[in-house]
Amino acid sequence: MTELTTYLDPTTMPVPFCPGCGHRLVLERLNEALVSLQIDPTRIAVVTDIGCSGLMDRHLITHALHGLHGRSITYATGLKLADPDLTVIVIMGDGGCGIGGAHLLAAARRNIGITVLVLNNMNFGMTGGQHSVTTPGGAITATTRMGNLERPLDICATVGVNGAALAARTTTWDPHLPALIAQAITSQGFALLDIWELCTAYYVPNNRLNKAALLETMDRLGMKTGILYQTGYPEYSAAYRQQAAQLRGQPVMPRRPLEQKYTSGLSRPTSVIIAGSAGGKVRSTAMALGRGAVLAGLWASQRDDYPVTVMSGHSVSGVILSPEPIRYTGIDRPDVMAVLTTDGLRAVRAQVARLGPEARLYWNAALGTVDTKAQVIPLNMTDVGIRVTKENLALLATAAILRRENIYPLAALIDAINLGQKPEIARENVEAVHAGARLL
Amino acid sequence: MREYVDGNEAIVRGALAAGCTFFAGYPITPATSILVHLLRELPKLGGIGIQAEDEISALGFCIGASLAGRKAMTATSGPGLSLMSEHIGLAIMGEVPVVIVDCQRMGPATGGATTASQGDVQFARWVTPGGYPMVVLCPSSVPECYSLTRYAFNLAERLRTPVILLADKEICTTLSTVDAAAWENTPVENRTLAAPGPFVPYRYAPSAAIPAFAPVGGPQIMRFTGSSHDERGHLTKNATTVGRLNQHLRAKIQARRDELAIVKADLQPGARTLLLSYGISAGSMLEAAAQARKRGQAVSTLIIHSLWPVPDRPILAALGGVERVIVIELNHGQYLREIERLAVGHQVIGVNRVDGELITPDEILAAMH
What does the pLDDT look like over B15-61, one tens digit per residue? Predict the structure, then answer.
């Protein structure tokens, strides 16, 4: 690349900023920093969002993204992740730091390798001088006529204590600003400069602000200048790639084909509902029931119902087993129901009440008596040769159902368990299946 | 060979088969397993998967990554789609290819996180200010989750626009048996890249043409903006330029209505009734139709896979010859209004449910009597 004397685009001049506005100064200092670094402009992306600061990107010869209010950090993060060697510079206002506060925090915590220049003029200039997150207490703005009642956000401290590689505060008059911007751009990680400046259209006339008063305000608020935070955490996109390198070449989404190995005499669709408790292996047992069906040449589908607190309350799975493809996966009138626990009963009580005389209800005898029109098959799960726990009720009942309903061979269920579960767990589960088969 | 998989796994496979190398998402039931699968799988093939701080940033990350040249996707449910609204508008305005999966759940607000619903149909269409056309695909089975996700990437790339895959809790989380022959592999398409040399980011002619793409970070300088812009990507208020841009954003979708239409029609001679549905409710419809036909009653069915833009032509074709149409959907009748617009002179009946349960075949059969 031949040496560039400017990164400004002469065809877009003049800049549109108000007389005395600090934005013009930052653009000039940024240009000086870029000239000093001599980075290929096709390898730089300048990302801006809403506010007068968002008018800056068009004046540079780099790539430019201009997005929505406070979201520039999100596009910058996407760019950096997608192209980690790209130099990504965000220019945003203090307004964006408010509405995009979550992104500011997350980007600092990730230490994503982007540079953020906050053009902090302590109010919303573009919309007529409303207060922002950095407006000092007592300041007069269009929306704080009696004086601002909110405390100003310390942007540097916020990102600094949360992982940013570099956080510095300065003003547009700082003679070291070009060097500071260059340092931020070359930092490995998230670098933020909080650049205080004058909004001559609104904040200056409303608060009789000038350079001296602004410096006095910083002092009064205890907002120190200079490099305030520097950390050495790993940069996110580099760390991500390092982790990913260890996974390269591993099989991606390996398929779990189920070749038919058994046959089934099932002539019509049969629906099975298993109602038990969370932690009772209801879903995994139902899944084995369905996978076993596929091994036996059937079609299966499974819907589950459980509360968001997955380790307490009910767990109900509905499985359809069919010799034909299943069009409708709902179960309006179950052929078979297994009620295993009081949690399960509570969840399906209405369905139990609706069962007709053709339905079979596999009922844990420990639950007492049941009032139903269905054929009740009591399951006495006290003396089955293995220790009966909350965890194997579903397996015991499912094996009993398969055996009595003669849906498909027990061996298919056992294969399904061995195919889909870890060996030590599968061994225990297969034991429960054998015990369940002896139940009736 | 058969497999036993749910819709979310099929969506993930479809995305990977389409060449998706960037995913950003935020946990939300019932879309979470898409996030978990892709964050686990993408690093294995040099892709990037990241959990964002919210759904706004999830789509923001995708927009950045897509502009860098990657195929990007996010997945969410109704509450997350609400947050993505502003960035969907940005992706439309800046002509960014991106795929957004909405695993619908019951709304409004938190609604029912694990409850079946098809309540986002009109929301997906009108998700952005300005009312610009959206491309929305809707799978009604697990294999279609695969093929339509794959195809959603093709459309996003071809049209440089966000594409929503409107799935639902039932299809996303219900395990189904899938025969290997059912996985459809349409050819993978990629966005048209700009020829080397001088580059103008948003140059198109005629109005419906798609501007050629050059990635941010590549040798041709790219300028992207959410503001009304000229062909160089510079903000403008010039009425001629703004009008031309806004006509273009509409025309590039509207002019391709017929190309974008995907339906599955099963029309029976002599049928007086057309059953029309999409998504999970299409399964109930097919079961009801099978039962009616077994009893000797002729009935036609139409499944809509391209919900938006409305496939007017195939719908009108299916309406020819029938006297009434029954629109079956898990909402208050959101697609019904589109059918009413087209089915002039027909009786239009809705079969709807909003209690979280599926529409049963019996309810559809009852509506036919």
Answer: 999 999 999 999 999 999 999 999 999 999 999 999 999 999 999 99
Residue B13 touches partner A, C-beta closer than 8 Å: yes
- Overall fold of domain B264-367: Rossmann fold (3.40.50)
- Residue pair A249/A181 in contact by the 8 Å Cβ criterion: no
Say whether domain B2-182 belongs to CATH 3.40.50.970: yes
Instruction: Count A/B contacts: CB-CB distance under 8 Å.
Output: 221
Ranges of each domain in chain B: 2-182, 264-367
Q: Once rounded to an integer, what is the mean pLDDT over residues B111-121?
A: 95
List the structure tokens of A96: 């964006």
Give B24's strand partners. B50
Query: Please, are residues A322 and A305 in contact by the beta-carbon 8 Å criterion?
Result: no
Q: Determine the average pLDDT of the residues in A414-420.
A: 94
pLDDT in tens, A168-185: 999 999 999 999 999 999
In this complex, which of B3, B65, B221 lies closest to A42 when CB atoms are compared?
Answer: B221
Residue A309 binned pLDDT confidence (cut-offs 50, 70, 90): confident
pLDDT at A311 over 90: no
Per the listing, tokens 């896979």 go with B305
Indicate yes or no: CB of A64 within 8 angstroms of CB of B233.
yes
Q: Which residues, other chains included, contact A233 with Cβ-Cβ below 8 Å and sequence gap of 6+?
A: A111, A163, A165, A189
Closest CB to A291: pick one of B4, B69, B233.
Answer: B4
Tokens of A232: 């050495």
Residue A382 has pLDDT above 90, yes or no: no
Mean pLDDT of chain A: 96
Q: DSSP characters for B41-95? A: HGGGGT-EEEE-SSHHHHHHHHHHHHHTT--EEEEE-HHHHHHHHHHHHHHHHHT
In this chain, the answer to whether the domains covering B2-182 and B264-367 adopt an identical fold is yes
- C-alpha separations of B13 from A124, A165, A256 in Å: 46, 37, 13
Query: What amino acid occupies position B50?
Result: I
Model's pTM, two decimal places?
0.97
Q: Tell me how crowded residue B44 is: count the other CB atoms within 10 A of its CB.
A: 17
